[in-house]
Amino acid sequence: MPRMKNTSMRAKARAAVVAMTASVGLMAAVTPAHAAEYNVTDNCSVPWISCSEGDLWLLYNSKELAIQDGHYITSWAQFYGNVSDYWGTSQYQGSTLTTYRYVFNGNGNGAWQYVKNNAASVENCGVDNYRVYYNSGYGGTSQYFAHREPWGDCNLTNLISALKNENASQHFA
Fold this sequence. Notes:
Elements: H1 2-30, E1 34-40, E2 56-59, H2 63-66, E3 67-68, E4 71-72, E5 76-79, E6 88-93, E7 96-102, E8 121-124, E9 130-135, E10 139-145, E11 155-158, E12 169-172
Parallel strand pairs: 1-7
Antiparallel strand pairs: 2-5, 2-8, 3-4, 6-7, 8-11, 9-10, 9-12
């Protein structure tokens, strides 16, 4: 008889270890990930985006209100390449979700406002052509912005009425 009790105790101990291991696994699965959020004025400041500097500038004000006496009096944000959502970009880095939100710089009107659905004009300072779109993911109404000529001035253009303060993404054109 004592042998049976001993075997029974071992089986119970194994079952308890299995149950404890399973519950620890479940607790690990439901533990929330950490989150980090940053505001940037240039998508080239995002660690997982490879570029040197933005060459398409979105300005908070229309071109008539953006520059005075040769100086910018409005805020702007710079972008390079395809940007599927002006709201920002996120990526998991281990168990931490890191998000970069795109905002206008602190230069003047519109300082630190989110870029998505807040731009009134665009300045293309690059050698690439772009399209700015109404929807995230390059959808809806769009407007074409030609590149600047080598050593030429940047092309500052107002967004069409359908895109003014209703702009969500950009793509190489």
